[in-house]
Amino acid sequence: MDLEQIWQSTLGEMEIQLSRAHFATWLKNSQLIEKKNDTFVVALPNSFTKTWVENKYQKNLLGIIRNFDGSVKKIEFVVGSKRFPSPAPVVVAPPDPQGMDSIDLDYKTDPETGLNPKYRLSSFVVGPSNELAFAAATAITEAIGKKYNPFFVYGGVGLGKTHLIQAIGNEVLAKYKGKVRPKYVSSEQYTRDIVWGLRNDRIESIKKKYRDVDLLIIDDIQFIGGKEKTEEEFFHTFNALYENNKQIIISSDRPPQSLPTLQERLRSRFEGGLITDIGYPEFEMRVAIIRSKLEDMNRQLSDPVINLIAKKLRKNIRELEGVLKKIVFTQERKQTEVTEKMAEEIIEKATQNLSKRVSDSQILKAVAEFFNLSVDDIVSHNRRKEVVEPRQIAIYLLRDISDLSYPYIGEKMGRDHTTAIHSYEKINQEINRNPALNQKILTIKDLIYKS
Ligand code: ADP
Ligand code: MG
To answer: What's the pLDDT score for residue 261?
Structure first.
C-alpha cells in the first residue's frame, strides 16, 4: 500500500466512526504527506483543525493506521504545507420546478414532543465558539438529570441555540427509545398554554403536561420575563421537575444575570446549574458549516464562492444559511456554476434587505433607551463618560447592522469619519474581550429588532 492508499483506508474507517458533519469538518481535507522513520506526517488545512484533530482523533487514527503499517509509532500533524486535492468539478443539478423550498428536506415537528428531527447533534458543527455548549449537551444525553442540571445556554440570534437544545431532545429519543420522555417548548408557546389554562379552568392539565416528562427544554426564556403568572407557573414546574431529578434545559439570548425582569428566585435556580454561551463562529467554522449544509442539500459550490459567503456573513448562521440557499438556487435556475462575482451580487442584495429593515433612528433610539439617555445626548458633543460609550456603541451598531459608510455615520453623529472608524474598531475589538459589553450590545439589538 502506498501512503495515499493507507490514508484513504484510514479515513474510510474514521468516516464510519464519526458523524458526517464531524468527518467533513475535521478530516475530509487531510492528507498523509510522508513517513519519517516511525512517524507519519499528516497535513491539515489550518491550525484550528490541527489542534482539534490532535486532541480528539490522534489516538484513534494511530490505532487504525497501525493496522495497515505496524511500524508506525506516531502521527505528527502539520498545517497544510502540501497541495490539497483540487476541488471536485461543480456538478449542476437539473432545474428545480418547485423553487427554493424544495432544496430543504421535508421535516415535521412532532406535536407531542415539540421536537423537529432535522436538528441533530451529528449535524451540529463544533468549533471554539460552541465547543463547551456542545460538550455539555453531549454529556447530558449520557446522564439525564444527573449532570449539569439545569443546563442554561445563551447567545445571540441565529447562533445555534435552538438547534443544540432540540438536538439533545432528539438524541435522547433515539437513545432511550421512549424510556426517557423529552419535551421541547418555546417560551411563547408555554405562555400561551398557561394563559389558556388559567382562562379555561384547565391549568391542572397544562401543569401535568409539562411535569409528566423526564426532560423539559424551554427555548428563549427571555420572553417569559415579566409575565408574572407564567413565571410563577414555570417556577413551580421547575422545582417539581428538579426535585424529581428530571433534566431541565433553558436557552436565552443573554445570561441569567442580565434577564432584568426575571424574578430573583428563578434566576438563582438557573445559576445553580451549568451556564454556557455560544459565541460568533470564526471563519473556519463558518466554512465548515457551509460545507455541511451543502452536503445536507446534496449540492456543491466552488471553493471561492464558499469562502466568500463565509467571509461576508459573520454574525448569524441563519442569515448565512439563507444566503447560501439563494446562491444554490440561482445555480440551479441558471444551470451554470455561480461565479464569485455572481455570488457577490446575491450576497450584496440579501444583506441589504436584512439591514433595510432597521432605520438609523431606530438604532439611536434603542441605544438611548438602553442607557436612559436621549437621542440628543448621544449625538451631542458632550464628553462625559456616561455618554461616550453609548455613542461609540451607536456608531458600532450603525455600521454593524446597517453597514453604512463611515462618512455617512460621521455626519449622522456630528463627527468626522475618522472618529466613526475609531469608535467602530474600538467596540469591535472590545466585544471579544468583554462579555459585559457584548451582552449590552445583544440586548440593544434585541430592542432594535423588537421595535
Ligand atoms: P438560535 O436559536 O440561536 O437563534 P438556531 O438554532 O435557530 O439559532 O440556528 C439558526 C440556523 O443555523 C439553523 O438552521 C441551524 O441549523 C444553523 N446552525 C447554527 N449553528 C450551527 C452549527 N454549529 N452547525 C450547523 N448548523 C448550525
Ligand atoms: Mg432559537
So the answer is: 73
